[in-house]
Design goal:
The chain is of the alpha/beta class. The chain has a domain of 230 residues: P-loop containing nucleotide triphosphate hydrolases (Rossmann fold, 3-Layer(aba) Sandwich), CATH 3.40.50.300. It contains 18 helices and twelve strands. A six-stranded mixed sheet has the order 8-9-10-6-11-12, with helices on both faces. Helix 4 crosses helix 5.
Length: 527
């Protein structure tokens, strides 16, 4: 029986597992956008969960709507995650163990974990079953209830309790050693398995036992391999010998449990282990939504547009990564990709909000295509087939190429990878060279992206680039490309407002603003 919290059908889940149709959003892009800070995962990569399929996005929106309406769902899943991780770790440890007593005990422990997981999920989900609305959670609730109420599960639970108590009660073993005529060990074996530990034989132990007589549970001489001065190898030899003997004692009782693990438990826990990455992802996503809401940040269920429209219409858009790091009220902006602007040249003062809004657009696109709510008051959006970023980097690959060469090489890689349905975010690209060279290369790049007909934000310090916009658009139009427009990070009343306006720069640049801020204007220097 197929069950998934992220995919409506088994076929869609299998295609996703093979990477078919998955948008290109690399781990590096997630890191540059700050998405890995917002949604930290331990057992999987965020890149595995992106989709461009509107039906899959809608399916996930149902899941997150349930988790928002029923916070107890998140609590139930959070309790199950560490137990499922323990089961996976036990299976890993059990590999290569063979049929020793350690392996048998791992089998019993795995069943105990399985039973505790099913019991916990059943207790938590049963009161919520009639209240969930998503297809994914409805199926999960029904599956857990079916397992927990089955007669086989009840018998398994009872048998486990009996066998487990028997094994857990073992506190010591009585070992017999036969000696030859020279008092050398000839053979040894376990004589009995005991429910109480033996005593050291020291005076204090005898006093505590209120008895000074020797008995079968009083040690009269310790075995040498367990002396503190012995080597680890000798201790290990004794341990393995005891494990082997105990394996013989319990083999008849426990052997059948390995068959149960392989036949029943594996069949009924594998679906939980398979969706463990999904459980962790939706739990993290729901936690992020709750944290943003607690900070008073608006969230909306986006309206999904056809991919061919290539639109993005946001009101009250903000950067959730910044929102989670600052206590100040977030500045919201409206933003549109439309027929009059699929590509933007975004200019403005340093620390005026250019990078923040660039990442905000990328994060909104990414969160929607993960199935999450959008960080805006309203959003109508077309899915993309990839998100590509070109943000400032260090000098990892500059020995042979130089920093400008490295930047150009990365830009060419992006250009060769994108389609008309891609989103490209460039933040201060070409800042490693002078304004003349940078402006020339930037104009060429913008013409190329325009001809490619993709969506682009080019956040730049090259304010004069906007003065060539008409010329650039003429070249792009000749190649049947999309229109390029300009955005400006605003200065209001002499202060950075962090608001983004759709207009052309005023031509004065922001050098005066920077000079005034740092006391480098002529007037300040004369003073």
């Amino acid at each position: 029986m197929f069950l998934s919290l992220l995919y409506p059908t088994a076929e869609e889940a299998e295609c996703a597992a093979r990477g078919e149709g998955r948008p290109s959003v690399s781990p590096a892009v997630c890191a540059e956008l700050g998405l890995d800070r917002l949604l930290p995962l331990t057992g999987s990569s965020l890149s595995d969960f992106f989709t461009a399929d509107s039906a899959i996005i809608a399916y996930r929106q149902e899941i997150f709507a349930d988790m928002a309406a029923l916070p107890a769902l998140g609590e139930v899943l959070s309790e199950a995650i560490p137990v499922l991780h323990d089961i996976m770790e036990l299976r890993r440890m059990d590999e290569g163990m063979g049929a020793g007593s350690e392996s048998y005990l791992y089998s019993i422990t795995e069943i105990e974990l399985y039973v505790s997981c099913i019991d916990s999920l059943y207790r938590g989900l049963s009161p919520l079953r009639d209240r969930v609305k998503s297809r994914g959670f409805s199926a999960l609730c029904a599956r857990i209830e079916e397992l927990a109420q089955s007669e086989y599960y009840k018998e398994l639970n009872a048998d486990l309790s009996r066998l487990s108590s028997r094994i857990r009660e073992v506190k010591s073993v009585t070992v017999g050693v036969n000696l030859d005529s020279r008092l050398c060990p000839a053979s040894a074996g376990v004589i009995s398995v005991n429910a109480e530990p033996f005593k050291s034989g020291e005076l204090l132990d005898k006093i505590l036992r209120m008895s000074f007589r020797n008995d079968s549970f009083t040690c009269i001489a310790a075995l040498e391999p367990y002396d503190k001065n012995q080597t680890e190898n000798r201790r290990e030899a004794m341990t393995q010998a005891l494990y082997s003997a105990l394996g013989d004692v319990f083999r008849s009782s426990v052997r059948g449990w390995r068959r149960i693990v392989s036949q029943y438990v594996l069949e009924n826990t594998d679906f939980l282990l398979r969706i463990l990455p999904e459980i962790e992802f939706v739990s993290r996503g729901a936690s992020l939504m709750r944290a943003l809401a607690a900070r008073g940040c608006p969230l909306c269920t986006p309206t999904l547009l056809d991919r061919g429209q290539k639109d993005f219409h946001a009101q009250g858009l903000y950067n959730p990564d910044v929102a989670m790091q600052v206590s100040d009220e977030m500045v919201e902006n409206d933003f549109d990709f439309d027929e009059n602007g699929r590509i933007y040249i975004l200019s403005g003062p340093n620390r005026g909000g250019k990078s923040v809004i660039t990442c905000a657009v990328g994060l909104a696109q990414a969160m929607v295509q993960l199935g999450l709510s959008a960080p805006a008051r309203s959003l109508a959006i077309s899915p993309v087939d990839g998100i590509y970023t070109h943000f400032p980097e260090g000098a990892e690959d500059t020995i042979d190429k130089g920093r400008l060469g490295e930047e150009c090489a990365r830009l060419r890689e992006i250009f060769d990878s994108i389609t008309e349905h891609s989103l490209v975010l460039l933040d201060e690209s070409l800042s490693s060279t002078g304004a003349y060279e940078a402006s020339y290369i930037a104009a060429e790049i913008l013409c190329g992206f325009g001809a490619k007909r993709c969506r682009v934000i080019f956040s730049t310090h090259l304010h004069e680039l906007a003065s060539h916009l008409d010329e650039i658009n003429e070249r792009v139009a000749a190649a049947r490309g999309v229109k390029i427009d300009t955005l400006v990070a605003g200065i209001e009343e002499g202060k950075r407002s962090f608001r983004i306006h759709r207009r052309r720069p005023d031509g004065k640049s922001y050098a005066r603003d920077i000079a005034d801020k740092y006391g480098l204007s002529f007037e300040e220097l004369v003073k």
